[in-house]
Amino acid sequence: MDLNQKQQEIVNYLEGPLRVIAGPGSGKTRTIIAKIEYLIKVKKINPKKILVVTFTNKAANEITERIKNLIGIDNFNSVYTYHSFAFHFLRLEANSLNLSNNYFILDGQDQKSLIKKHFKDEEFIANNSIDLNDLINIFHKLRFNPEEKISNDNQYLRKIAKLFDKYQNYKKEISALDFDDLIIFSKEILEKNEEIRNKWRKKYEYILVDEFQDIDSYQYQILKSITNINSKIMIVGDPDQNIYSWRGANIDLIFLFEKDYKNVKTIILNTNYRSTKSILKIANNLISNNKKRVSFDNNPFNKEDKKINLIIGKSKELEAKKVIDEIIFLHREKNIPLEEIAIIYRSNYISREYEIELINRGINYIVVGGFRFFERKEVKETLNFLRFLLLKDNYSLSLIINIPSRGIGDKTFSKLENEANLKKITIWKGLEKNLINIPKKLQLFIDETKKILEEIPKIESFKYFPNLIEKYLNNIGFFNFYKNFSEEKVKNIQSLIELIAEQFKRKDSLIDDLYDFLKNCALFSSTDTKSLVNNLTLITVHASKGLEFEAVFFVGFNENIIPSNRSIYDSKIEEERRIAYVGITRAKKYLYLAYFYGTDFYMNPWKPSRFIYEFNYPFNLIDQKKDKSFSKFQNYQKNFIKKGYSNDKSNLQAGDIVYHQSFGEGVVIKADDIFVTVAFDKNHGIKEILIEHQFLLKKD
To answer: Residues in domain UvrD-like helicase C-terminal (predicted)?
Structure first.
């Protein structure tokens, strides 16, 4: 196995504790494998006496597979995640804590199934008002920070704390442990029982820990308990890539390691085999502004270099259009497969404009680690509120009457429906006119709904409609409910309301626009993205860690997004800088940063991120000028009438007339076997669209 000088030094060092600071793309996994091979083949250490701990199942499986293939050891079973190691430990030592040997483990899906089934009558579960992933995340925080149950004065969180206590008790009844229990009980046994602690300290001759920057204080205490200050232990991590503080990752631990262990040697891996010189230059410039780090620069191994590009949009939508244009250029002209291109962003709500643009153009994409925008629970619920305000029918009401919880279950709703049917009216008509028995908990919802239904016809301009919707959702408790659990979900709701505002052009067509808007949203959420091209990746920075792409578009690079508005005020700017650093170092060859102007949900002006200036780099500005051929078709398009179109798009050529579900009618400028370039009206401009896209029709 070919190694550079520093990698070889790491492999050979066995004198005592070793701290490896591994920059992005520096071949750390390769070095870990080489170290294991050296320990087994050269130093003749029994594989069972080696412990390897990493952060994810994916990483653990990769190391195990590479050991099997490269070293030829089929039964190397000593690679664990922290949770799988804790499970292994408890299987042997659970008796010391009076835990049943017959316990079983709840993984994430098991947790959700148990909660949904056993606590189906609890308020949050019965009305499906909270995402189970969010609930489990709150349980996690309460497990590791029990004082929050007492100190928190938020009524929703107090209710969840009570549900958490019931969940804990039920686990005991059925002898079940979740992943948090594995860590906590292992730590407790090791801290309380010196005999067990000493036994495990003798168990391993060498310990390797990967992704050390991501561990929390509980995991670190377990590690300290099974080692001593002179142990032969190697930790591998990079404080510059610590981006998981929200789930407990403690950046201080990689520095504390030097104090807790004796004569620690530090080796820095800073030769980057992934990215170009320019990408590493801006990464180095950015991260050098952080104080809490091990100071080093990433040095490029590759000699080839590409200028880094900057895309500026006058709005979010124009930013998305320019980015997708550039992606199509890379795909067609530079022959980069779509699966080698990623759109990366700080938070999931940024994906909305990109998903709409991609769907409209028929480009296949996947959202990694999350739902597509129109499939997100809070977005669907907001659309259901709009649907009800338009239709006021029983079905639409059934979707929103208990969001957030108002104690209206299926039985109560059936009673309301039966009363309304007897009077041959809708439920809403009965509630509005007080013609049926009204549960007290519904009164606020009824009053606020009556208000907005009276106000909608009176608004002087469409621009007031988003404010009206926001006020309504606030007054009925919808916004506040999500504010208690997830800022990101609130931003998704706000993003949807912004989208509504963008769609409406005239006050007298507000209702028609709403109908069309809801129809289009249904099309977006049901679109089948199987196409002639492979998947483009949409992904958050956090989900992208450990991945790499030929081309990366880091979008929404705006102040209050990256860095986030909360981080600015909470003095967490260094972690935001690390998040940006991780995002840009996913790129191998092409890197684009994109930001936009305009105003946010509260009409504050958007600005480029402060990090743009910290890069201290002369970016190549991507300025796509209007295609000259566009002007030929502007007047011609006004005379189009939508009739006589078909889905047969064979032999498309310049001059053909086409129709698109979202962009309207247009004229083909050019076409090849996969894409067609179409000039639409001035609101949509020139677009490149997949020929086989279901939204695109050809005039007969």
So the answer is: 277-546
